[in-house]
Amino acid sequence: MNQCANSSLTDPRIALSRLPSAAYKTVCETDDDLDLALSQICKALGWSTDSRNLLGQVIPEGARVLIKPNFVLHENEGADGMEPMITHPSLIRVVVEIVRQTQAAEILVGDAPVQRCDFAELLRVTGLNQWADELIKVEPRFKGIKDFRRTTCVMQDGVRFADENKIAVDEFVLFDLGSESLLEPVSNPDNHFRVTCYDPRLMAKTHAPGRHQYLVARDVMEADVVINLPKLKTHKKAGITCALKNLIGINGNKEYLPHHRVGGSQNSGDCYPGADVTKRLLEYTLDRQNMAASEATTKIWNGVAKNLTRVLQLTGDKIGVEGSWSGNDTIWRTCLDLNRILLYGDVSGRLADEPMRKVLHIADAIVAGQGDGPLAPKSLPLAMIFASSNGAAMDFVGAQLLGYDPQRLPVVREAFGIFPWPVVSFTQDAVNLLIDGEAVKPEAICQLNPLIESIIYPSGWRDAALFKPPGG
Question: Which residues, given as ranges, of the chain have pLDDT below 50?
Fold first, then answer.
């Protein structure tokens, strides 16, 4: 165990630094403003040994370091570009350079974006491919950028074409949290967990009463220090994606990740509020599409699903059937299970009594994301980064920067709960935000964002906003 690992539970401090502008540097430019901001943060949190070794206190000699960005997808499905979508490559590059100044033995960047992400294209459009190739030549400790997905796919006319088992299963560690999973209280034998565009029969094998399995990249479990680099965004299913939600990307197969439960809130599901005959028919249709044995059958069911979706759109529905609302009572459980595994998991697939590795979180909020995140976010220029040793504290602050009431975001509220292998050992009242080394009162966090009253939220999360959002 890393001697500093326990601070991932006990340190309530978050350090925030504001940059002169919400502008990123290109791959060819040095980013003095970002360097300075990170230097201020590391000093405030006590991570530095000196100005040349900003992480010297938290990365011991010989440590294996994993850097976990938020890659998501190779293109923004909305009108904006990549800046509000992914962890910006400039932050990834700077953090790698900071780690290089320590005595770390190995440095790896890795993530598991959504299955239809073209990983090579993502690296190309961000310039990370050329940067990584050049760095590998001069820095033997740097092991490149790794795609943790075992399955990728492309979608054509509603048909999913998958490439399975791209990475050997022995490069992953299987965890079964069983009855200790946070999903256990909402489990039943009726196979009701779902994840979009995936055969529910596969998820039934990994999540059922008394069985809750996750398949985590071995590179993650073998790391002594994990540096989590989320992009601060609104999120259709979780409300927010920041430190806690970003850890979905340490899991290799989608069928291990329950995102919602089939049905409406009036019939034991959490896909949508209430009960709706058309939505129930659409759910049934999507299941048939995802279980179809042939391309022809898939296309038939896809056509039915499109027609039912049009019917819903004509009624003005904006939530759909994928758990994209504040009543989603599933996704936060999956997220926190993975946070527990990251903190306490070992390479044998067991959870230890004490944290096994140090986890640091540094959030990219230079350009944050608003609207229909995570796949179609609009730019929200905040010109800031913030960091902490604790993911729950990070998201408590991140939620307020996005204008949310943290108590209305299950992934934030429940992170402070009491359960085996907790992710935090202090209460929300103890969270301590530092700006330039000075503590800021919690009620002043919202004042840091001058755009807070005009933020665009996913339709299903407007009721979680502190201020009445535009049009809602």
Answer: 1-3
Give, for 220, the enclosing helix (H) or strand (E): helix 218-221
* pLDDT over 70 percentage in the chain: 97
Residue pLDDT, tens place only, 401-427: 999 999 999 999 999 999 999 999 999
CA dihedral in degrees (152, 154, 155, 157; nearest 10)? -150
How far is Cα 372 from Cα 458, in angstroms, rounded to an integer? 5
311, HSE (Cβ side, Cα atoms, 13 Å)? 13
CB 335, CB 238: distance < 8 Å: yes
Q: Which of 422, 442, 446 is nearest to 432 (CA)?
A: 442
Q: List alpha helices for 115-208, DSSP H.
A: 119-126, 128-138, 200-206
Stated pTM of the model: 0.95
**Structure tokens belonging to residue 428:** 């929300």
Nearest to 219 by CA among 168, 152, 172, 252: 172
Cβ(220)–Cβ(110) below 8 Å? yes
pLDDT of residue 472: 53
